[in-house]
Amino acid sequence: MRIGILTSGGDAPGMNTAISAVVKAANYHNIDVMGINYGYNGLIEGSIYPLTESDLENITDTGGTILKTTRSPELSETEEIKIQSILRKFRINALVIIGDNKSIEAARKIQQLGIKVIGIPATVENDMVYTDYSIGFDTTVNTILDCIHKIKDTSLSHDKTTIVEVMGRHCGDLALFSALAGGGEIISTPERKLDLNTICSTLATRINDGKRNNMIIVTEELHDIQQLQKGIEEKLNISVRTSTLGFLQRGGNPSAFDRVLASRMGIAAIELLMNEQTGKAVGIKENKIIHVDFDKLSVDTGDKLENYRLLETILN
Q1: 57-66 tens-digit pLDDT
Q2: Which residues of 210-244 are buried (b: 16+ CB within 10 A; e: fewer)?
Q3: Which of 147, 213, 254, 276 has CB atoms 3.0–4.6 Å from 155's, for a disulfide?
């Protein structure tokens, strides 16, 4: 067996740890590993080279990915044929794909071509519902918390209300977890979007109770935060600041949790391939490593919504 490994989608802290774990576990079983640069684009173009122990020195605790990454494309039939040709050329008969939802979806299509594939979830948004956590989420929550604490220092000093926009797109986990851990007073997420009137009503109550420094945490692309700022200022006659954290949320050394999680998932991926299993995504549930068939990956957000209902009782 010769394994190819690539990272795809947005970078996530812990990707390098997962790469290291896969290579070391494969080497333990005398399996060669080929690194594929720039995700699926590199696979299609044949940007492939042998990964050795020396390539792994000092990468476990670094962010980003040494294999580089690109957003996952919708693979065309021509590209699928080219991928098969490239894999034959480099004598690769199994792939480990580290990435987000779209990365795993592309992995499913490759698996349907008769190629052995295992997926590992790595995305800071934590929007892959079959697993409790994806690689990178914990680190990003801690990065947001560090920013929130700094913002709170100045908000407290000036009795200011601040709107903080965090990543997440279609999943509010980053906003919810950072609010719970960092003391965000009002949160608006895709799962529970608040309108201007609701935000102002809650904020007015807090101000009337003497709490003049408040933090509103919102998921990106959910609100136009400049318009939200303007609306609050006009309705409540207060001064509001905004802060969009942006891509700094993706960077930084992975947390201990993400390093351990990435290591466990990387080892599990090799064990699955050793046991002739394919077309599966590794995950974690109740602190136990699991694997789910690509075709059975749940899109039901029921469990996550129940978590929101439970956790929001603390905020409310």
Answers
A1: 899 999 999 9
A2: eeebbbbbbbbebbebeebbebbeeebebebeebe
A3: 213
